[in-house]
Amino acid sequence: MERVEEISAFALGRVNLSRVPVNRLSTLARYGQLSKAQTIERAPEPRRTALLTAVVRQLEGQAADDALDLFAVLMANRLISPARRASDRDRLAMLPQLEKAARILAKASKILTEELDLVAEAGTDLDVGALWAAVEEAVPRTAVVGAVATVEALVPEDDGSAEAAMREKLALRYNTVRPFLSLLGESDALGAGPAGRRVLAAVRRQPALSRRRVKDRPLLPREVDAELVPTMWKRAVFSNSKLPQGAVDRDAYVVCVLEQLHRALNRRDVFASPSNRWADPRARLLDGPRWEAMKADVLAGLSLSEDAAEHLDQLVRALDAAWRQMADRLEEAGDDAKVEVVVPEGGGRAKLSVDKLGAVGEPESLTWLKNTTEAMLPRIDLPDLLFEVHSWTGFLNSFGHVSDRRTRMDGLLSLVALLVSQSCNIGLTPVIDPENSALTRSRLSHVDQDYVRADTIAAANAALITAQSRIELAQMWGGGLLASVDGLRFVVPVKSINTGPSPKYYGYKRGVTWLNAVNDQVAGIGAMVVRGMPRDSLYTLDTLLNLDGGVKPEMVATDNASYSDMAFGLYKMLGFRFAPRFRDLEDQRSGGPTCPTTGRRRPPGAGRWRPSPATRSTSSGSPRTGRTCSGSPGRSSRTRSGPTTCCGCSAVRATPPRWGLRSPSTGGSTRPCACSPWSTRWATPTGGS
Q: Pairing mode, if any, of strands 555-558 and 577-580?
């Protein structure tokens, strides 16, 4: 945050650059950051001023992004996760006492129940003394009283006791967050929308609270915003037994506000300006006269009507038709159906069961064809392979200079050597040759800095995608209208704020996820790198909106991808058919709507489904009903890897290349890709909405 304030002192953030295209501003900033100071100083006006302005604006946004990335990592790794683990350990430590008390109470309850049943059958009066005598034959009365006290102490009455206990542990982490409270509270980089203004106002008061001596002057309830304290925090904030009656725990309240800030940042209710990753999502939305001027084109491009209710009615009718079609097919298949709708006894939501759906084996003919094809592939060096592919496609011509001028390097040997070193992850040392001017370290560093970038790699990949689509065999596989997006996860061995935690895949380490989009012509049409292991349905959509090339796919097959009703709606609005391959399908609830046109009811046992009460017209200019971004979306950051033909879907198994300069073509073996149309046929009815 200090770096943000230092850069903001130049006041270039106040310059109105709304008329400058976003891509042009990014290009100027990239060129300025990669240029030497002498080069910028010698640049003529107004180019020099434009370069400096773009660089400072870019650095200011990057500084804000880095600060908030670090805050998100701190909250997730140093505060929330350790507090949850400590709370779980304490609850496990109490388990033996709770088990002993439960056994005592179980014995006493069993005897009480039996004796009360005998009294009820005999119709006599209850003798309390005899009842206690029967209980004490099995369990002493003092043991019963002690067991009751133990249960009352270890098992709170409220249902959220586990979350409340975790927040009490989290409040002990106040000393971890105290050093940066003033930086967060006094920074002008943070802003808020209507839903985040209360949180931001509480953050602004954090520096004063951190300097207050609460031992001399305790914090009172009227001095804090009680509406920001959720139920799970109330016990830690307002009921600390070590403080005077009615006092507020300052440490717990501060950490509570920071947790609310963390959530608000993830929802973008609180944002940073300027910023790239934490910016206001409404900042580039058209409104007013500009939206009215472009509304017709936007609605036509998305095939949407101006009336939101009419659009929702169309979706309901389509979903109703898909349900009826699936029900008819299941009825026609009878006992041979691989999928069945199971209605619980006594009613409730229906579930889809796929217990009869078995795995499809690999035929012997496919194994023979694979082995024969691999034996026919020649053994050549990877540089020779790249040069040969370039002779077919010309993809190396896409690597242009960072200045966008028609500057070409002398020969392509340096570029090919860089692509080999980066795609094989072997570094520059194996490809450096001091006796060859094109392979010296200085020459390779120059080409790497000025030519090999995310945008040039994407342009080269577009040329390869176009060439792949012209092959007759690829055309037999499909027309490019089906895409599969899946993630590959990698542990990053060095410290970086651009990585994220995932105990399931990385243990105590950190890593990144590489989302790869592959079409049914087995061409990688786009990729994106994201931190850690995110809920990736919207990241998948971002990948599809920034494809390198090829035909825009109509159906998108993914794994679970953290699907939600919102994800289905966004994909539908943007022209995609979202068809996730559900895992554990028997746990997926199914429900059909009541069609507004036909009036037909949903299938028996299905859950209720109603359209959203969004009835506003898209002309209102709401971000949810049709406003669009004023600038073209920038390409997401990518790793610097060479062109690849590896499919990222989970059904592919490929032998990794050797760490040398030989071609991996003879060492790899692949199975048929799960991107094939027949692999998603059972997901189609669900994703058809």
A: parallel
Coil vs helix vs strand at 437:
helix
At residue 630, φ and ψ (nearest 5 deg) are: -80, -15
Say which residue the tokens 């049914």 belong to.
520
CA distance 640 to 397: 17
Closest listed residue to residue 473, CA positions, set 362, 360, 579, 369: 369
Name the pTM for this structure: 0.59
* Cα radius of gyration rounded to whole Å, the chain: 32
Three state DSSP letters for 240-260? CCCCCCCCECHHHHHHHHHHH
* φ and ψ of 121, to 5 deg: -70, -40
Q: Is 473 helix (H, G, I), strand (E, B) or coil?
A: helix
pLDDT per residue as tens digits for the range 62-118: 888 888 888 887 887 777 777 777 777 777 777 888 888 888 888 888 888 888 888
Rounded to whole angstroms, what are the CA distances from 135 to 132, 142, 393, 438? Answer: 5, 11, 89, 93
Classified as helix, coil or strand, 501 is strand
User: Distance (Å, rounded) from C-alpha 351 to C-alpha 144?
Assistant: 45
Which amino acid does the sequence have at 290? R
- Taking the CA atoms of 614, 618, 620 and 621 in sequence, report the sign of the dihedral they define: positive
Alpha helices by DSSP H, 94-223: 95-122, 128-138, 141-154, 161-171, 174-177, 181-186, 197-204, 206-211
Q: Are 203 and 184 in contact (CB under 8 A)?
A: yes
Q: Which positions ≥6 away from 558 have C-beta within 8 Å?
A: 484, 485, 486, 537, 540, 578, 579, 580, 581
Q: Residue 423: name the closest of 527, 530, 305 by CA.
A: 527
- Tell me the C-alpha distance between 274 and 29, whole Å: 14
For 200-245, how does the pLDDT look when each residue is reduced to its tens digit (9 = 90+)? 998 888 888 888 887 878 888 888 888 888 888 888 888 877 888 8
Q: Which amino acid is at 16?
A: N
- What value, to the nearest 5°, has the Cα angle with vertex 55 and ends 52 and 56? 85
